[in-house]
Amino acid sequence: NSAILDDTHVVYAAIRNARSLLYVFDVTDGSHKAYHTQFAYITKVRSVSPGKIVFLASEDTRPMSIVTATLEMNDPNQLDWSFQASVEHESPIPASYISRPAPYVFKDAITGDPVHATYYPPTNPKYDCGLPGELPPVVVNVHGGPTHFTPQGLNWEAQLFTSHGFAWCVS
User: Fold this and answer.
1) What's the pLDDT tens digit per position in 2-60?
2) How far, rounded to the nearest angstrom, does the alpha carbon of residue 140 sit from its chain's CA centroid?
3) Which terminus of the chain has fewer Cβ atoms in its 10 Å neighbourhood, N or C?
């Protein structure tokens, strides 16, 4: 999940707090720097030409698409990214109904180890969930095991529940 940017730099994607970051690694001194983007999940990073990469990415409100990124290194301490998605996806669902994912960490009741989850709150402007102070019902979706995770980003299954007054939590 990495690509060569130029003679001295490699770019790679990694997950921190359930969201993807792009890192630029300098092979001459071993330093690296993290860059936050608008993308919730980035995968399949590939080099196209010096300073230009392509990858698959999803956003909180847009599905997976092909993204081209150009890196301008005018100043070695300041990197300027520009992103262009392959297709501008316009959702048939109004943005006011789209639940945005948020990372959540809680402790295992037995071991005390951190357990990472993604929480999608109920999101529907025409629905008030229950009595004042009452918490919404939560659907808990547990993924399949220690070597797999569910990335953040637009999740239509979660949207079905959150638009009907349920919260969605996947761990």
Assistant:
1) 899 888 889 999 988 788 999 989 999 999 888 888 889 999 999 998 888 889 998 88
2) 19
3) N
